[in-house]
Structure formats: C-alpha cells, structure tokens
Specification:
The protein has 10 helices and 5 strands. By secondary structure, the chain is an alpha/beta fold.
Amino acid sequence: MENIVFDFGGVIINLDVSRTINEFERLGIVNVLNSTGHNYTNSIFYDFEIGKVSEIEFIKKLKSLSTLSPSCKDIRQAWNAMILDIIPKENIDFLLRLGKTHRIFLLSNSNSIHQDKFITEVNEKNNLSFNHLFERAYYSHEIGLRKPNKEIYNFLIQKNKLNTDETLFVDDSIDNVKIAEEVGMKGYHYSGGSLEEILANNGITF
C-alpha cells in the first residue's frame, strides 16, 4: 500500500454527534435525526455539506426550524458541539511521520462552519498548517461531492492518478468503506484504536 486515504471525523478527530443533537433540542430544534439515528431528517444538512447552500442559508434554515429564537452564535456553537477535541497530538505526530514515506490524503464530508473551527484551532495549537499534513485534503463542501457517492472516490483517484490496488481507505462509516472497495481500493472500517497499529496490521510500516 503506497497511498492511504483517511476520513476525518471519527478517525483523525473525535466526534460525538449526540452533543450537537442535545444542544439543538435545547435551542428548540427537534427531530434532527431519523429513527435509525444515522441520517438527518432535513436535506439542509446534506446540502450544506456539498456547498449547495451557504453558511448564512444553513443558519437561517435552522433558526426557522426552532420553536425558540436562537441567535446565529447559538446555532454555530450547537453545530460545533460534536467536535470533542482538536485532533489528539499523537495523530498529528503520526501523520507527520507517515507523510514522509507514503502518499496520504484526506477525504472528508465536512462544511464551512466545522472547517473554520478545526483548521484555525489545530493550526494555532500545533503551529502548523493542518492541510499540509496531507498531499491533498478534500472537503465535500469545497468540491460539491460527498461520500458515499461513488463520484467522489473516482474524483480522488483520477485527480491524483492513484493505483487503487495500492490504496487503503480508512473510514468509520461502513457504507463509505463499501463504496471505496467497489471502486477498487482496500477498505478498512475504523472503530477505534491506534492508527499506527491499524496500518501495521494492513502491512504498512514507516
């Protein structure tokens, strides 16, 4: 494996979506997730992830869904509540070392509010540029595609001329991993643990 593609939330950074759901409920925004607890009930969340709607439109829509009168600041803070920490130091060190021996990429379903928070805080805390830890970092809201849409995987492969047989894809969503495998990459469903140990178990040492 010469190339490693990482998901961001739930792999490199720790997330807890329930914290955001609880904060939304406190602001009078309810029934955000469907009965499975894995999908949003309103398309605005997915539209925001692919840049189809702006940050202002996203916040305005959430305000309209509330039974109260939350401020824009309230909405932002509730939306960012799912971000538990700004990347464990061991993951920063791991990526710095890995990037010296392998081509590494980030492929993330993200949005401008989350990105503004973690990019700024990671860079300030570690005195580095987070995106420069990767050969390329791709965010769904910037390229207009999101996982598990097969197009985003093909975009990554073609843009960087990747040999899929030499590419490992690491994601905490089994649906995302399945599509990566369909396009020819080796998939790994991340459920916790040391990223370095996981790569070693997949024959990747550095």
